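testing teh design pipeline on a random one, pls ignore if ur not involved
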């Protein structure tokens, strides 16, 4: 038994050392990539990102399958198979541009940022004063360029503390590297798992929360069914919890591509105003429905903007598959 435990421990230690070594190699590769992309002309970076986006549609079979299923759910037979593949390719190119510009614009400065992003809606003085005075929840999704959306923080050094939730991958060194790249000004990053407390505390203290709300959130993690692209979809209730508890506005905000390779920041009206419902649960669903509708309006108007490979409908309320995609699982209330 002692020999067995010792052998198991040694094997585990060896795997752990190999894993850490691979992580360190990956970080070194990313550091080198930042140096290369930072030195390249922007048009070359965008061209390369588009080529990588095209390649991902060919080799990412799971992503392609989920994307084509999502497009059929959202649009039925409006688009042919060929048109759905075209939309998927364009959306993947936007994803790659978002990632490439995160590396290319290091270190991000206000001057660099304004060279890439127009800000007419965000510089609205009434909204800005409201955010400074009360704090806010800014909701968005995997639409356009969400990395530049985070970078907006560098333009407002006088704003209250700002926190966003990030996806955590199972590689600590890479997570820390990405956190460093996204450290725009005093932007605070918290990982999605366990990060809700950090977000709530920052807003309770008068700060700002930035949330991407278009991922499936299972019931054990609080996900609430709200309509999205024609189906009830599990949606994070965090924006509603914060708004109802702390009385802060909820603004939708998106960094949308323009035809010249640049972007335009768009901020909508406060979605938390005059919510219908007799209790917090009804008002929560009403607010999440408004948030999803805002996102859906953008997607239906310009489908290429959204990341279709997300398994957005992974939860379904009924045992039967019904109109849900094959990747969905039964996740009842």
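output:
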């Amino acid at each position: 038994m002692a020999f067995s435990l010792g052998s198991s421990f040694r094997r585990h230690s060896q795997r752990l050392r190999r894993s850490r070594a691979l992580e360190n190699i990956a970080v070194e590769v990313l550091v080198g990539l930042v140096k290369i992309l930072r030195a390249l002309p922007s048009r070359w970076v965008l061209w390369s990102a588009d080529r990588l986006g095209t390649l991902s549609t060919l080799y990412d079979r799971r992503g392609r399958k989920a994307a084509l299923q999502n497009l059929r759910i959202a649009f039925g037979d409006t688009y042919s198979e060929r048109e759905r593949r075209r939309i998927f390719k364009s959306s993947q190119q936007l994803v790659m541009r978002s990632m490439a510009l995160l590396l290319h614009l290091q270190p991000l400065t206000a001057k660099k940022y304004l060279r890439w992003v127009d800000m007419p809606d965000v510089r609205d003085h009434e909204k800005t004063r409201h955010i400074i005075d009360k704090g806010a929840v800014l909701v968005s999704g995997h639409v356009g360029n969400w990395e530049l959306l985070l970078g907006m923080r560098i333009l407002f050094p006088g704003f209250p503390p700002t926190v966003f939730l990030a996806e955590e991958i199972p590689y600590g060194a890479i997570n820390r590297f990405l956190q460093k790249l996204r450290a725009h000004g005093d932007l605070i990053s918290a990982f999605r798992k366990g990060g809700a407390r950090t977000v709530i505390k920052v807003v309770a203290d008068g700060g700002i929360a930035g949330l991407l709300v278009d991922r499936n959130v299972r019931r054990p993690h609080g996900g609430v069914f709200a309509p999205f692209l024609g189906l009830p979809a599990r949606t994070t209730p965090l924006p509603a919890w914060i708004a109802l508890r702390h009385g802060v506005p909820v603004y939708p905000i998106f960094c949308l591509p323009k035809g010249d390779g640049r972007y335009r920041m768009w901020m909508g009206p406060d979605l938390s105003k005059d919510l219908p419902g007799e209790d917090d649960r009804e008002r929560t669903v009403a607010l999440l429905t408004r948030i999803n509708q805002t996102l859906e309006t953008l997607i239906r108007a310009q489908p290429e903007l959204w990341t279709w490979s997300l398994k957005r409908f992974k939860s379904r309320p009924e045992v039967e598959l019904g109109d849900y995609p094959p990747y969905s699982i039964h996740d009842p209330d």
